[in-house]
């Protein structure tokens, strides 16, 4: 049996199971040995204007809670969570947050280039944030190429409906123009947050299955995450930890 886990990766894997069924124990090597950890790792990013609610979406998705604090994160922040697609395949989502750079439109190429999916986020109570969506999509496509990625348009803060400035139909029209899906969410109320991540994950997985998206050695967008041999388990972190923090 080969277990190649750094202290930090054990910690990260523990976090992955936060929202899994109770029969899988957190940080339990026994659990690691009887269940495949993940079959693929997809790296996703969230883009959109500052304050639209990107970090809140991520925190709700990974912690199941809304944090009412404006978090001026410094540096690169990333989160992870395990999700199952329709056929039961386990996907580890590695989720990168722009950590404040979006205020200055200074997101670097490296933030985009290893991503296979982008949630393009605007605030339904802020029309300008929708008007900036074409810029965000253009910027992401420019940096992601030659690789391809799945985009999903996400409207946030539907719990404050009386402040709505963007009609659902208008956002849907924009999404249709780009040929992408649209979902309206509230991180405060926990509405459709899971759905948004599920939609993008399933779409990427379908493209992997059909052969449209392929893994590449020099690209971290999609990684195979787990290998099992007849002699035991070989557990390999899909990507070495570079930055960010966990626990
Ligand atoms: N009412 C409401 N406020 C939200 C929601 N999501 C985020 N916010 C608030 O919007 C502000 C910016 O959120 P944040 O996640 O930091 O946005 P980011 O800059 O895009 O990462 C904060 O004050 C959050 O509390 C939501 O679903 N509903
Ligand atoms: Mg943020």
Automatic annotation (TrEMBL):
GO annotation, biological process: autophagy
GO MF terms held by the record: GTP binding; GTPase activity
Matching PROSITE patterns: RAB, RAS, RHO
InterPro entries listed in its UniProt record: P-loop_NTPase (IPR027417), Rab_GTPases_membrane_traffic (IPR050209), Small_GTP-bd (IPR005225), Small_GTPase (IPR001806)
Compartmental location: Cell membrane; Cytoplasmic vesicle membrane
SMART domains assigned to the protein according to its UniProt record, in alphabetical order: RAB, RAN, RAS, RHO
Record has Lipoprotein as a keyword: yes
Keyword annotations of the record: Autophagy, Cell membrane, Cytoplasmic vesicle, GTP-binding, Lipoprotein, Membrane, Methylation, Nucleotide-binding, Prenylation
Pfam families membership: Ras
GO cellular component: cytoplasmic vesicle membrane; plasma membrane
Gene3D superfamilies named among the record's database cross-references: P-loop containing nucleotide triphosphate hydrolases
Bilayer topology annotation: Lipid-anchor
Similarity-based family: Belongs to the small GTPase superfamily. Rab family.
PANTHER family named among the record's database cross-references: DRAB11-RELATED
UniProt protein name: Ras-related protein Rab-39B
């Amino acid at each position: 049996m080969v277990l190649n886990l750094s202290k930090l990766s054990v910690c990260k894997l523990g976090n992955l199971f936060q929202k899994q069924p109770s029969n899988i124990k957190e940080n339990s090597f026994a659990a690691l040995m009887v269940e495949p950890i993940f079959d693929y790792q997809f790296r996703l990013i969230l883009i959109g204007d500052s304050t639209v609610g990107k970090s809140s979406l991520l925190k709700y998705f990974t912690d199941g809670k809304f944090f009412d604090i404006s978090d001026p994160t410094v540096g690169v922040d990333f989160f992870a969570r395990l999700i199952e697609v329709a056929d039961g395949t386990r996907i580890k989502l590695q989720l990168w947050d722009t950590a404040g750079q979006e205020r200055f439109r200074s997101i670097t190429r490296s933030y985009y280039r290893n991503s296979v999916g982008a949630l393009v986020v605007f605030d339904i109570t802020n029309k300008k944030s929708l008007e900036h969506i074409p810029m965000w999509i253009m910027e992401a496509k420019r940096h992601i190429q030659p690789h391809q990625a799945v985009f999903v348009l996400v409207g946030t803060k539907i719990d404050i409906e009386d402040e709505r400035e963007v009609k659902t139909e208008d956002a849907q029209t924009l999404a249709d123009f780009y040929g992408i899906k649209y979902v309206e969410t509230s991180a405060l109320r926990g509405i459709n947050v899971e759905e948004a991540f599920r939609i993008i994950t399933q779409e990427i997985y379908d493209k992997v299955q059909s052969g449209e998206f392929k893994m590449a050695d020099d690209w971290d967008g999609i990684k195979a995450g787990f290998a099992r041999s007849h002699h035991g388990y070989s557990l390999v972190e899909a990507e070495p930890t570079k930055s960010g923090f966990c626990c």
